[in-house]
Amino acid sequence: MENAELKSLLEKHHQESYGWALSCCSRISNDAEVVLQSVYLKLLQGKARFDGDSSFRTWLFSVIRKTAADYKRRAILRKLRLVKYQQDIERLSQTETFDSRVYRSELQVLFQNALLILPKRQREVLQLVFYHDLTLIEAAKVMEVSVGSARTHYERAKKRIREWMIKEKAFNDSEFEQRYGRKENQEIIQRDAAAR
Amino acid sequence: MDEKRIKRLYSEMRQQDEAATPSFIRLLQRPGSGSLSFAWSSILRFGAVAAVLILIFSLAIILLRHKSSSVVSGDKPQKPRVVDQSSSVPIPSVVEPEKPRPVVYKPKKRTVRKSRSLISQWKSPTDFLLRTPGNELFKTVPRLIDPTLKFNAIIPNEKN
After folding, report:
1. In this predicted model, what pLDDT tens digit does every residue of A180-196 receive, in sequence order?
2. Under a CB-based contact definition with an 8 Å cutoff, are residues A81 and A102 in contact?
3. Which of A77-86, A87-96, A120-129, B7-16 holds the top average pLDDT?
4. Which of the four, A33, A50, A75, A115, has the lowest number of CB atoms within 10 Å?
């Protein structure tokens, strides 16, 4: 695969890649950007090559997942660096403003917090299936686990989210309707269908 | 139903993420591109610092040892002075405390010959406990007095 072709493919999947990187980095935007940038550089420099065994998106997601894991592993060394202070400043500058936090729905914040409590594998499988519309087989490939294992993680994750919903009273049907009115509901359904 | 609800939440999250996604070009040209390769540089830095510290520490130990050995060879233990009691000079009542002697490290001389002789001459320190009265009888052969005379009378010869 040529560099220009690869670049266009990366650009095509950029938004999804960013979402996946965010999920792998516990939704810290600065870390996600660093990870995604190093993934792109790694691919463009030919350090990782697509062999065509799976779809490009699945392969790209697995590269992002590995890079994010590597990034986390090196977090201890990173903390020892003298430039930590500088990084903290950068991170602070990129954190959400009060307005944007208000803009985000309260329920969404609660949901994201609930996701962070989930075990890593369960969080990953939910993200891949519901956010990126991957099948369980594709999700298993990205996560480098068997399909059976991925299915188990998926079921457990759903169960835990359901429990969270009951505990937090996140949704009763009337609230759900209120939040997602029919028009908006239809838009989401249409968008999901188009994504598939 | 739950799946639908989870899907909705994820859709909302996705919309938010899409709005906050930095552009592809901006991300590629972001400063600090080698941020993941820092680990190697920091490892090297820490390694260099550790090596320097080890070098300084070992040099300090060597210098200290050298210094202590030179002090031992230079200072000879002074003999206690004999005080002449017949002299008229009064003896001070307070005795000066002796200066602590430097510890002399003398490596033991171990020669092969000496160790061999020591092994051959070695005896158990509790060996005497095994000695019983009349023990010599078991270690020596009893001597007969004039055995030939007596036996000649018994042993038959040609004349008999």
Report:
1. 544 455 555 556 556 55
2. no
3. A120-129
4. A75
- Phi/psi at A144 (nearest 5 deg)? 60, 45
Contacts of B24 in chain A (CB under 8 A): 10-11, 14
Q: Does domain A97-195 have CATH number 3.40.190.10?
A: no
Give the span between the Cα atoms of B147 and A33, in whole angstroms. 116
Residue in B10, B18, B39 closest to A74 by CB: B39
Q: How far is A129 from chain B (nearest CA, A)?
A: 9
CA distance A17 to A119: 21
Q: What is the CATH number of domain A3-78?
A: 1.10.1740
Inspect the interface and report whether the beta carbons of A191 and B11 lie closer than 8 Å.
yes
Q: At A128, give phi and psi (nearest 5°).
A: -65, -35
**Is the pTM above the cut of 0.80?**
no
Least Cα separation, residue A88 to chain B (angstroms): 14
